[in-house]
Write a structure and sequence with these properties.
The protein has about 290 residues and is an alpha/beta fold. The chain folds into two domains: about 120 residues, 3-Layer(aba) Sandwich (Rossmann fold), CATH 3.40.50.12160; about 140 residues, Transcription Regulator spoIIAA (2-Layer Sandwich). About 40% of the residues lie in helices and about 15% in strands. The chain contains eleven helices and ten strands.
Length: about 290
């Protein structure tokens, strides 16, 4: 059987799509591009803004038009945020929200076997635990991604993610270290830590800086680390010191500013002023 995956949105979605592909390929399924004939179409959606939601709808319709007889699987933030009527209107065979994504392959097999539509969308208030979705090998043998965090508590006024992915939760640090070791064993030489709110990593014992220190201590000296998008308020002194002291921490930070207008930042519910942002950037550059 052949499958295709259309991925919208952030690096976390791209990571999760890689996980779905790996799980299906382990069972003997073959991945093809979205414009080819296939038996299963997976659309990994986004809803961070109205534009993202509109693109998700367009890609769902495109997939159904390209392969009208294929099993249509819609997963992710867009369907989590959509109403029950909106989900029914998509006429998808399998709908999975922000929970039970790690059961996607089992649910696909069930849908193929039973020939019945399945809707698995739970209330975000039920999202208590981090669902591990480890990817142990990436096509690029140089760079690998490791999802360590999910969810968001920020509630920026323009963003639907807290309602689509639920509250913050993190992968246990011991599991993070083990997955990193597996990636090293596969030959990857750079690991990028990623999440919806990566800087808020907290498993109850380790924060992001402590996690990074443990990763550096438990993996070979030939492996480097990078952090995906992080908020300015979460670039801690401990993290900066680690980047300064350890050459295996890439001197790279992707920090969103959103606006250079304090009134706009206030309306956005962003937790900083432009002056605070600039001062922190100046401090980081003075250290690194």
């Amino acid at each position: 059987m052949k499958f295709s995956i259309i991925t919208l949105g952030c690096k976390v979605n791209a990571y999760e799509s890689q996980y779905y592909a790996g799980q299906l390929e382990e069972l003997g399924y073959e991945q093809v591009s979205p414009d080819q004939a296939c038996d299963i179409c997976i659309i990994n959606t986004c809803t961070v803004t109205n534009t993202a939601a509109s693109k998700s709808r367009q890609k769902i319709h495109y997939a159904k038009r390209m392969n009208p007889n294929a099993l249509c699987v819609v997963v992710g933030c867009f369907v989590q945020f959509a109403s029950e009527d909106e989900r029914k209107a998509l006429d998808a065979d399998l709908v999975i929200g922000a929970k039970q994504k790690n059961e996607l392959v089992n649910l696909i097999q069930k849908a193929l076997k039973d020939h019945e539509k399945i809707d698995v969308v739970n209330e975000v208030t039920q999202f208590k635990d981090f669902e591990a979705m480890p990817v142990h090998c990436f096509e690029s043998m140089h760079r690998a991604f490791l999802k360590v965090q999910d969810g968001c508590n920020q509630f920026c006024s323009y963003c639907a993610i807290p309602f689509a992915r639920g509250r913050e939760r993190s992968l246990n640090h011991e599991q993070v270290i083990q997955i990193a070791k597996d990636l090293c064993d596969k030959g990857h030489t750079e690991i990028v830590l990623t999440g919806i709110h990566t800087g808020r990593y907290d498993d109850g014992e380790y924060d992001l800086a402590k996690l990074m220190k443990a990763l550096l201590e438990n993996t070979p000296d030939s492996v480097y680390y990078r952090i995906s998008s992080i908020e300015i308020t979460e670039v801690s002194d401990a993290l900066i010191a680690l980047m300064k002291e350890n050459p295996r921490m890439c001197h790279h930070l992707h920090i969103p500013v959103q606006s250079a207008c304090n009134e706009t930042l206030r309306r956005m519910n962003r937790p900083y002023t432009i002056e605070e942002f600039k001062e922190k950037i100046k401090y980081i550059r003075s250290c690194i």
